[in-house]
Amino acid sequence: MADWIPDVLGDEFEQLTLELDDDTEGPVVATLVRALPVEATWWQRLQGLRRLLDGVDVLYVHGWSDYFFQKTLARFWTSRGARFFALDLRKYGRSLRDGQTPGYIADLATYDEDIAAALAAMGRGTDAGASGRRLVLFGHSTGGLILSLWASRHRGVADAVILNSPWLEFQIAPARAAIAPMVELQARLRPLDVAPQVDLGFYTRAQQEVADPDDPMDVNPLWRPAQTMAVHAGWLHAILSGHKAVDAGLAIDAPVCTLLSARSATPTRWSEDLTSADTVLVVDDIARAALKLGSSVTVERIDGALHDVFLSRRDARQDAYVRLDRWAKGWVAARR
Q1: Confidence class of residue 205 from pLDDT cuts 50, 70 and 90?
Q2: pTM of the model
Q3: Among 127, 106, 114, which residue's Cα sits nearest to residue 32?
Q4: Residue 67, exposed/middle/buried by CB under 10 A (0-12, 13-18, 19+)?
Q5: Which helix (H) or strand (E) holds 199?
Q6: Distance (Å, rounded) from C-alpha 178 to C-alpha 20?
């Protein structure tokens, strides 16, 4: 296995390249980024003081047309004692290689290999007994869909699942069943056919409008373009299949916390309204779909939040962190 090296984020962040099986486009890798908590002082150890999340590992997975770059989010976890890991999936961000179709996958279950490699690098296997540390899965948007499906298939591995605006349902939910057969046929015949670009770049603009100068983001536009990466028929079929599985009901056996904006807005033209709503998903549909993930689901609706609630304007972002902290404290207390 390769060695941990300094990450592009600098500071306390390191990255590790994970070699995966080749596919039709050649060699494939994923990339694991980590930030570790500061070691307890001798005085803290002498007093037997424990931080809230000592003994916890967090594995974060990004969304579509995205990669991991959120330092503040990582530090939320490490400041409480957790080890934080973020996975740039194959063909995204740090893992994208020349000649590859960005973000392309034909089956979301293929990411099982990426996740298994990440867990192994974290010092844990895919079986629950491989580590004495608790595992929190944390997914944003498409990453939330991927991790929800994974957790349902790998019961007993995750101790908690946290979802930041997970893409659990198609934006036009009633139309999903009608368009799925057509998409499936196109995916079978011409999987790399590209759908028309419908993203006008307003979501990226909204994030820039509400950005906090005290918490700057250094985003690589090649890894996170202002307009989303091309949508291919094979990839869309994989997503719709995931939505169908969620709609049928999953069996996640760990407590789930889903954070969402309080409302959605349609980004057909620019307005300030787009800076305080989810312009990607229909959040009411996502809230309903979240209840099908397992038997213990909390849904937090955050007023003024964007699609990524942790990239919202300051008051909404702080509200999201307060709610996440409250849920984490309750989760820890329930396990004692």
Answers
A1: very high
A2: 0.95
A3: 114
A4: buried
A5: none
A6: 35
